[in-house]
Design brief:
Structural class: alpha/beta
Strand order of the largest sheet: 5-2-1-6-7
Strand content: 15-25%
Number of strands: 7
Shape: globular
Largest sheet: 5 strands, mixed
Radius of gyration: 19 Å
Distance between the termini: 36 Å
Helix content: 10-25%
Number of helices: 6
Order of helices and strands: HHEEEEEHHEHEH
Length: 193
């Protein structure tokens, strides 16, 4: 009777205890079980980068990412060699993106310098050396009556280049949201990317 009484998301929440299932969610393929791994030491040779969506009065989000250079078996943590989903199956495929840290700010009305300092406070000097590049919302590069937000952050040694946030794919490349959905759905074996 529960299965017939509500949406798929509500039934998933009631029967499976998955309270991350949200009706009408943009990424309806999200699953905590599939998309969250236990903390693990990121190998030093994996590419790292930072991304940011700017917002002063509006929310902002900074993400720190690593790109898996090789496939890693999940469940390997018990053997002391890698990450785990806790279910002991699947793998983290080569090329998978791992968001290993996030800073989400809302309603704080921080200046560019304060956000840059917050980024510096969250990164160790060693990690800063490993981060190869940063991408930032192109609107933060707009100059209107003074230095841009990106310029002001750069003065504090927090460097970004403009992100490509076009909503339409070009030259056969996937648009960003479509690529995100494809990565969440996973590779041919169903392993999220």
């Amino acid at each position: 009777r529960l299965r017939a009484s509500g949406s798929d998301e509500l039934v998933r929440a009631w029967l499976e205890g998955d309270w991350s299932a949200i009706e009408g969610a943009f990424f309806d393929c999200w699953s905590t079980e599939k998309h969250v791994v236990s903390p693990f030491a990121i190998p030093g040779h994996w590419l790292r980068f930072r991304s940011m969506d700017w917002g002063s009065a509006a929310p902002f989000s900074v993400g720190w990412w690593a790109v898996a250079s090789e496939s890693v078996a999940l469940g390997a943590k018990e053997r002391g060699v890698g990450p785990s989903l806790g279910r002991g199956e699947g793998c983290l495929p080569r090329g998978a993106l791992i968001r290993y840290r996030e800073w989400y700010g809302t309603g704080q009305k921080l200046t560019a310098e304060e956000v840059a300092q917050g980024i510096l406070d969250r990164e160790s000097e060693d990690e800063r050396q490993q981060i190869r590049y940063g991408v930032l919302d192109p609107s933060a590069f707009a100059v209107s009556g003074g230095p841009s937000i990106a310029e002001r952050m750069a003065r504090m040694k927090v460097l970004f280049r403009p992100a490509d946030n076009k909503r339409v794919s070009q030259r056969g490349a996937m648009g960003g949201w479509d690529q995100m959905r494809a990565r969440m759905k996973g590779d041919a074996d169903g392993n999220p990317m």
